[in-house]
């Protein structure tokens, strides 16, 4: 009965380091979404993936950010050379393939809170 | 401007009803959602409504949709201190990927 799992829950990095955030979708879900939440703001869509395929990355910054969802293992959001402005909560959500369930609802993980010193 | 707008704060007394409002701009919205976020936690789906419905009730929660005015509301009856959280409205547009657009969230504060 595991929901969406994210780790680590908290991550501290110094400027210039790399951050790797992991997300394991709910069992039976083949689609993963990453969102960023800045303090006192709503969620902003970053990227939408299915296994081995990026479907929509229109919300992802063009530089330093990348995402993957390999055939085996969790989805990874990677931020290279982090800057202070990257400090935020990063949420992952998963869903079944669109059109396969009544609502195409996304289920969210607990988030990773990234702090860049 | 934003596609989904919500007021930022709402304060109510325990036992009263809370009404959280949301407006959206895209008339092709398919689903409208309410999510709850407690401090330090992820978003929990509370309820959703399909765009051809006017109302949906689920225990203490009532969702009303006025499609003409593009207005969505969430009513929480008999509000409890445990209902204190941020409530996000979101819309999902039929465009294949069903990526919802979120409002900025309404902070509900429940006073004893």
How would you characterize the overall build of this protein?
The complex is a heterodimer of chains A (117) and B (112). Chain A is mainly beta. Helix content of chain A is 0%, strand content 48%. Chain A is built from no helices and eleven strands. In chain A, the strands form two sheets. In chain A, strands 2, 4, 5, 6, 9, 10 and 11 form a seven-stranded mixed β-sheet that branches. Chain A has a four-stranded antiparallel β-sheet with strand order 1-3-8-7, with no helix packed on it. Chain A is globular, with a radius of gyration of 14 Å. Chain A starts with a strand and ends with a strand. The mean pLDDT of chain A is 90. Chain B has 112 residues and is mainly β. Chain B has no helices and eleven strands. Chain B has strands spanning 4-6, 9-13, 18-24, 29-37, 43-50, 55-58, 61-66, 71-76, 85-93, 101-102, 106-111. In chain B, strands 2, 4, 5, 9, 10 and 11 form a six-stranded mixed β-sheet that branches. In chain B, strands 1-3-8-7-6 form a five-stranded antiparallel β-sheet, with no helix packed on it. In chain B, β9 (85-93) and β10 form a beta hairpin. Chain B is globular, with a radius of gyration of 13 Å. The mean pLDDT of chain B is 89. Chain A binds chain B through residues 4, 6, 33, 35, 40-45, 48, 55-56, 91, 93, 95, 98, 103-111, and chain B through 4, 31, 33, 35, 41-45, 48, 50, 88, 92, 96-105.
